[in-house]
Structure formats: C-alpha cells, structure tokens
Amino acid sequence: MSMAQRARIDALLRRPAPAGPRPVEEIRAGFEALMAGMIVPGGVRTTPGSLGGRPALLVEPEDGPRAGTILYFHGGSFVFGSPRTALSLTANLVVRTGLRAYSLDYRLAPEHPFPAAIEDAVGAYRALLDDGADPATVVLAGDSAGGGLTVTTCLAARRAGLPMPAALVAFSPGLDATRSGESMRSRAAADPLLTGEGLARTGAMYLAGQDPRQELLSPAVCADLTGFPPMLVQVGTNELLLDDSTRIAERARAAEVDVILDVTAGVPHVFQAFAGTLDEADRALDRAGLFIAQQVAAAAAGATGSGGASST
C-alpha cells in the first residue's frame, strides 16, 4: 500500500476551505479547480456532442473503439461537476477497455432538482438504444452522485419498460439521501473530503423538499434490485458514504444479482480519480476495466451464440 501517496492526497483534500455555506458558483469553481489537477491519460480523443437532448462528451480511443459503449455519469452531489471534471475517470476506462464513452452533462440542482438528473440519464440511455446500441453492450458507470445514478437510472428505466444494460460500475456511489448509514458517523474523522454538513446542504438543494425515503433517492435503503445486471461497486474505507456501497451490495445479493463489492483500505471518496499519482487508483481502474470488458464480451458471445442457434 502506498502510504506516502495516500498521505499527500489526504493533505491535499484537507486544505482549509472557507467557513460557512458558499454560493453555488463558488462551490462549482472550486471543484473544477480540484479536478483540473487530475491526470488524463493519452491515447484518447474527445468530441463535444449531445445525447438525449443534453450535452455529452464523447471520449474514444485514438485508434478507434471496439463494439460497446460506456454511458458515464459524473459526480458532484447533483450540484456541481461536468463531463470535463470527470475526464480522468472516463478516459482511463476508455484506455483500459477500448470502448467509447459518452459522458453526460445532466442538469444540476438547485436550478434543476430531483428528478431532473435521473430524467436526463434515462433520456440518454434511451437515445443510445434508439440509435441502435445493443443494451447488452452498454455499461452504465459513474462516480459519487453519478455512481448513484447508475442504479437509479436502471430503476427508472425498468419502470419505463426499457431493457437493462450489460452492467453497472459505481465508484464511491451516493445511494442514500436519508444519510442513515453508520459510516456517516464512524468515518467522519477519516474522510478528508466530505462532511455531514456539506452533504446536508447539497442534499437539500437536490431534494427540494422531497421525502428522501424513496427508491430513486435512497436505493441503498429501499430499492428492489430484482432483474438488475451485474454490478461492480468500488469504495474506500475512509468514506462517509462507505455504507451506501456495502448496503447496495447486500440488496443486490438479496435480489440474486451478481455483485462485486470492491473495498480499498485507507483511500478517500472517488480515489480512482487520482490515477497516475495513487497506485491503488490505477489498480482499481484496472479491475473496473476488466469487469467492463468481460461483461461486454460475454454479452457479445451470447448474442453470437443465440444468432447461430436460430439460423440452424
């Protein structure tokens, strides 16, 4: 384990912030400045575009993509962040899988509270399907709030009668708007980035008075995951939201869903963003890339097999 690397990142994330509530514009600018320091790997090209009526950043291997698509949802508590702030994560997944990725610029609170982000995510998934993408080769991935969107998008897509994607990959997902996990208290001193007060402020912006105890806001508490595709959930032990991940994995197992809960000791929220400076981040992304490639390959093999059977 890279003790010196982790110590440097912990110190970076613990730098003093202005006291008291900050304007949304200031929060957004601060997050953009933090994420601008993340390393984006070479070997990819980016193209601004749109998907389902929302802006989206297409990230592709420079030498052309393999068959399959990653639909990526950025983090930021549903209040800040963008495809650009998540570029280190999407680019690393593209490099490791050879797939293309669409990173969605979904609407943000407080201007657009719940369920705007979910509506945009489902709209993007539907647009991919309408454009001819095989759902069995589409993987939903995301970090933090975007990690939560991988689950809630599937829940909303199931309600709408859409087919399930091939798999979900969630990095440090936010899956409980009730904030009832024990880790909210037990990991408060260990988490260098998130605070209960900060989550309460951004949560109130997103909820806009809605009851948090519903499956599209707190799937770790009250969602039925029956029929979900295979899931990979990665989280660090130094996270307030650790129990969001452990509880969604429990719910997946209870619903007979294939799930991998991948817990890395001593690392912060969305530690994968520190790829290139934190060894654990690179290894976690290696595992995520392998998982995605295996799920898409299995779906492709299944389609080929069924096609061959029907032609005889």
Return the string of H and E elements.
HHEEEHEHEHEHHHEHEH
> Order of strands across the biggest sheet?
1-2-4-3-5-6-7-8
Major sheet attributes: 8 strands, mixed
Separation of the first and last Cα atoms: 54 Å
Strand content: 15-25%
What descriptive keywords fit this protein?
single chain, 312 residues, alpha/beta, Rossmann fold, 10 helices, 41% helix, disordered C terminus
Concise description?
The chain is of the alpha/beta class and 312 residues long. Helix content is 41%, strand content 16%. The chain has 10 helices and 8 strands.
Structure description:
This protein is an alpha/beta fold and 312 residues long. Helices cover 41% and strands 16% of the residues. The protein has a single domain, classed as Alpha/Beta hydrolase fold, catalytic domain (Rossmann fold), CATH 3.40.50.1820. It has helices at residues 3-13, 24-35, 87-97, 116-130, 145-159, 183-186, 196-207, 219-222, 242-254, 279-310, and strands at residues 44-51, 54-61, 69-73, 100-104, 138-143, 167-171, 231-236, 259-264. It has an eight-stranded mixed sheet, with helices on both faces. Helix 3 crosses helix 10 and helix 4 (116-130) crosses helix 5 (145-159).
